[in-house]
Design goal:
Protein name: Transposase
Helix content: 40-55%
Largest sheet: 5 strands, parallel
Order of helices and strands: HHEHEEEHHEHEHHEHHHH
Structural class: alpha/beta
Strand content: 5-15%
Distance between the termini: 41 Å
Shape: elongated
InterPro entries: ExeA_AAA_ATPase_DNA-bind (IPR052026), P-loop_NTPase (IPR027417), TniB (IPR008868)
Number of domains: 2
Organism: Photobacterium carnosum
Number of helices: 12
Strand order of the largest sheet: 4-5-6-1-7
Radius of gyration: 22 Å
C-alpha cells in the first residue's frame, strides 16, 4: 500500500503502518508525546523558572492532578527537551535534576535520592549534614538550573514534624542555591505546603484537572488517532465515539490513552484495522469502579 493511503496518520509515523503486526503493536505500547494546551503551558512555566534570574526567594511550582492524569509525562517531556547534559569550558553542566520523592518524609533519604541522580558515590551511614554538604556541592559544581521532585505526596506518610523538616530542607536548597524547585504529585500534595505558611507562599500551584467532554477533548482524541499505525481511519472524533471514550475514561488522560491503545491493538490483532464503536464498548471494563478496574470476574 502507498503511504498516500494513510493520510489519517501523521506523516512522521505513516511508515509504521507498513510494518508487521508485532512491530506496530510494540510501537503503540512505546511512550509517545501528545501535546495539548495545558501541558504546553506548564512546560512554558517550568522553562521560565529554569531561566529565571537568580535572586533571593526564587519562584517555585507545585504541579498537582489526579493519579494517571499526565503529570509525570509532562515533567519527562520537559526533561527530554531541556535537560541534556553538556560542557561549557570543559565544565559539566547538568541543567535539570529530576528525582522521585523518597517514600517517607526523610531528610537523609531525600539527599540520597539527589546524590543518586548525580550518580555520585555515598555512604548511607553518613550523617544528614555530611550528605547535605555533598548535595550542595554537586549542585554548585554542575550549574543545575532547576530541581524537579516527582511523587511528592509520598512524603505525606511522615509525621507533621517530619513533613515540616523535609519542607525546610527544600526551602534551604532553594535559598542556598538560588534555584527554583518544582514539586509534582496528587492533589493531596497541597497539604505538605500548609505545614508552614512560608512554604505555601513560596509555591505557585498548577493543577491538571480531569478533561471535560468539549472541543479540546475532541481535539485530544483526534491527536491520539494521528499516531496509531492502523491501515484504516477510525474517525474517533465522531460524536458517538468521542462520547463513548469520554464515558469510559471519565476524562482521565491516562485512561483515555490506555483505552484507545487497547482498541487499536485489538484492531490490528483482529484484522479490522480500525477502531469501531463496538470495540470501544467492549472495553467498558476499563472504566474505574470505586477506584479499581475489573478486567476479569
Amino acid at each position: 500500500m502507498s503511504e498516500s493511503l494513510y493520510t489519517h496518520i501523521h506523516e512522521k509515523f505513516r511508515h509504521i503502518a507498513h510494518l508487521p503486526d508485532k512491530e506496530r503493536i510494540e510501537f503503540i505500547h512505546s511512550p509517545r508525546w501528545v501535546g495539548y494546551n495545558t501541558a504546553n503551558q506548564v512546560i512554558d512555566v517550568m522553562q521560565g523558572l529554569m531561566n529565571h534570574v537568580k535572586q533571593h526567594r526564587m519562584p517555585n511550582l507545585l504541579l498537582i492532578g489526579d493519579s494517571n492524569n499526565g503529570k509525570t509525562t509532562i515533567i519527562n517531556r520537559f526533561y527530554d527537551k531541556f535537560g541534556e547534559n553538556h560542557t561549557v569550558d570543559e565544565t559539566l553542566v547538568i541543567p535539570i535534576v529530576k528525582i522521585q520523592a523518597p517514600p517517607t518524609a526523610s531528610e537523609k533519604d531525600l539527599y540520597i535520592s539527589i546524590i543518586e541522580a548525580f550518580k555520585l558515590p555515598y555512604r548511607p551511614t553518613d550523617a544528614a549534614n555530611k550528605l547535605r554538604y555533598q548535595v550542595v556541592n554537586a549542585f554548585r559544581h554542575t550549574n543545575v538550573k532547576i530541581l524537579i521532585i516527582d511523587e511528592v505526596h509520598s512524603m505525606l506518610t511522615g509525621t507533621a514534624r517530619q513533613q515540616r523538616a523535609i519542607m525546610n530542607v527544600i526551602k534551604f536548597l532553594c535559598n542556598e542555591l538560588l534555584m527554583p524547585i518544582v514539586l509534582c504529585g496528587t492533589k493531596d500534595a497541597v497539604r505538605i505546603l500548609h505545614t508552614d505558611p512560608q512554604h505555601a507562599s513560596r509555591f505557585d500551584v498548577a493543577e491538571l484537572s480531569l478533561w471535560s467532554n468539549d472541543k479540546e477533548f475532541k481535539r485530544l482524541v483526534g491527536s491520539f488517532e494521528k499516531i496509531l499505525p492502523l491501515k484504516k481511519p477510525s474517525k474517533l472524533i465522531e460524536t458517538e465515539k468521542v462520547n463513548l471514550i469520554y464515558s469510559i475514561s471519565t476524562g482521565n488522560l491516562g485512561d483515555v490513552k490506555r483505552l484507545i491503545n487497547d482498541c487499536a491493538i485489538n484492531a490490528i490483532e483482529s484484522g479490522e484495522e480500525e477502531i469501531t464503536v463496538e470495540s470501544i464498548r467492549g472495553k467498558s471494563c476499563l472504566k474505574p469502579t470505586k477506584g479499581l478496574r475489573r478486567i476479569i470476574g
